[in-house]
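Hello,

Our lab assistant flagged a job as stuck in the queue for most of the afternoon. It eventually completed. Since we weren't sure the result was trustworthy after the delay, we are filing this so someone can double-check. Below is the sequence as submitted and the structure that was eventually returned. Let us know if re-running is recommended.
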Amino acid sequence: MTTARRSDATRAAIIDAARERFAADGYERATIRAIAGDAGIDPSMVMRYFGNKEGLFAAASDFRLDLPELGALPARHIGAVLVTHFLDRWERDDVLTGLLRVCATNAAGAERMREIFAEQLGPVTRGVCDPAEAPRRAALVASQILGMALTRYVLRFPPAVEMSREEVVAWLGPTIQRYLVDELP
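-- returned structure --
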């Protein structure tokens, strides 16, 4: 294996271990030493690749939401499609759950969540509503999506966990759709 490939493999192992550790322990309790142990490397290698815990967190929380193109959908389906998409993401990606845990108590985590909001949700929202209204509408969408994620996947409130995906879509879909396409009050 070439040095470049070994380097890429080491970096990927560190990021995978960091994602799992941040998701399980949160930012404050996750340590460089524990992450390095999980990756099977010396802690100095983590520092070599990422500089510090903040740099590692930034790399580990770098992901794409891969949001659907909402502007191409009939307006009546936008809410359900977006809620379904987020349920899929939350259920298959522990990074999002870890980031949600971290952002509630850590400035770096909160900043990363704001970046994702601005870079990824904002543009999708502008595609379905007046660009001047898009930031406010995107914030309302985020409040519902993140609220459900917090109660279903982090706090694990029994009523939220027990709802089927179809029930979550049926409850949240119309609200998300209203936030995106209905006239402002």
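-- support follow-up --
The delay was a queue issue, not a problem with the job. The result is valid. The longest helix spans residues 3-29. The chain has two domains: 3-60, 70-181.
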